[in-house]
Amino acid sequence: SICFELWLTKQRAFMMTNDVDLFIIGGGVNGAGIARDAAGRGLSVILCEKDDLAEGTSSRSGKLIHGGLRYLEYYEFRLVREALIEREVLLNAAPHIIWPLRFVLPHSPKDRPAWLVRFGLFIYDHLGGRKRLPGTRTLDLRRAPEGASIKSEYTKGFEYSDCWVDDARLVVLNAVDAHEKGAEVLPRTSCTSLRQEKGQWLATVAAEGSGETREIRAKAVVNASGPWVNDVIGRVAGTNSNRSVKLVKGSHIIVPKFWDGQQAYLVQNHDKRVIFINPYEGDKALIGTTDIAYEGDPNDVCVDQSEVTYLIDAVSRYFKIALKPDDVIGSFSGVRPLFDDGNGNPSAVTRDYVLDFDQSRGAPILNIFGGKITTYRKLAEHAVQKLKPVFPQMGGNWTTNAPLPGGDMVDADFDIFLDKVRADYYWLPRDLSMHYARLYGTRITHIIGNASTMNDLGKQYGPLLFEAELVYLMRHEWARCSKDVLDRRTKHGLTVRPNEMLLIDEWFKDALRHKDVNLFSDNY
Questions:
Q1: Which uninterrupted H or E stretch holds 184?
Q2: Residue 26's Cα: distance from chain center in Å?
Q3: Is the bond preceding residue 204 a cis peptide, omega within 30 degrees?
Q4: How many C-beta neighbours within 10 Å does residue 308 have?
Q5: In this predicted model, what pLDDT tens digit does every residue of 16-63 receive, in sequence order?
Q6: What backbone torsions phi and psi does residue 126 show, to the nearest 5 degrees?
């Protein structure tokens, strides 16, 4: 049949040797960002990721695009400035998945003096050339509505700006853009070996499930494998580096939202660490993060009860509500691969990045150490610039003013775009039109297509999840199972029931079993 021939052709293609300019290991935000940047300069690119895109660290962040206010205390002025500049670059590039957020910082007289906090916020306001976001203001928490949920002993506070981001979608959109610019993206594909041959790298990759292998010949390799960067350097590539990463575990908990308003909060715990308390998916709150040195397998990271207690205690210090462990409705933990600068305090380890360009064995390998989600685009730009001697004919920098897929809105104004969506698709419920607009931006048309009624969206699998969205995510975003959809590409997992999750997995199995030609794009 036609479907079988399509599948067979793709399997044969997978087993072929491909010659490319650049082979990238790691499908987190750095790897996807580098793939996008390099493909946009005209390089041929293959990216492989052993799991799903953003399945590791990049989907387990605090969901913030921020300069890092507390990094000022460690004199990380260059990093903070770069992050603050990137904050507005990314806000313009993806206004559907990144939006402004105001943070209220209750002042505790027992900790940093008020004048020092205000001075730090003044620097924060001006260090990065802020243009779109409002500046800091001082609050009387006894009278301001933002102080209604705060204990009466905290009378003074400050409010400043940063941005929220859907971190996993940020990764996927970079991968989508890379693919549309010619890169091949291979999720669930492990790099099992790297070796030098005739002045080039010869990589062997293996597909999850089928075990099929493929050889890829590349002029250069980028190792953007995050917590596994040293494993790729040593075990896979058989090389060495005098740099390494320090693994730090960060955990978050999700509870019902316990204050009025859209503002977030930043509070200081007794150990001088800061904790973010952010509105999350409408009626919930995301609280984090912890900072704990981690020496185990990054695949096995999980939230400890002691971390839950730590985060609840931080909330209880400032807020009137008495949170309990039973209030926790969800949690996640990730391992941050920070560049090991020799600092023993996990909170003080630099969030800056280091690019280790190694040509000692002939063909170059670029190892990425550290980084943070806010500066991923700049990291990618710097990484590809490092490869200029290898690819002298490649194009110049281009991503600063380039929107991510779905972000090409007039004046990067999401509110105007949302009004148009609601007018064009008046038959959609308001919460569903918001969901589509927020996740997919101008690419909402790819999901809705010619639909003109709710029935046209297909079978319903959750409060806001319809078959049309599953089809889109399979065809264009490499989704292959319920967790890909519910935990990363969307947050439907917070509302979908267990029996609906099973039905979604059955839907994927049926689609893959029959190799439905209408469900697959060139991604597969």
A1: strand 184-186
A2: 13
A3: no
A4: 19
A5: 558 999 999 999 999 999 999 999 999 999 999 999 999 999 999 999
A6: -115, -15
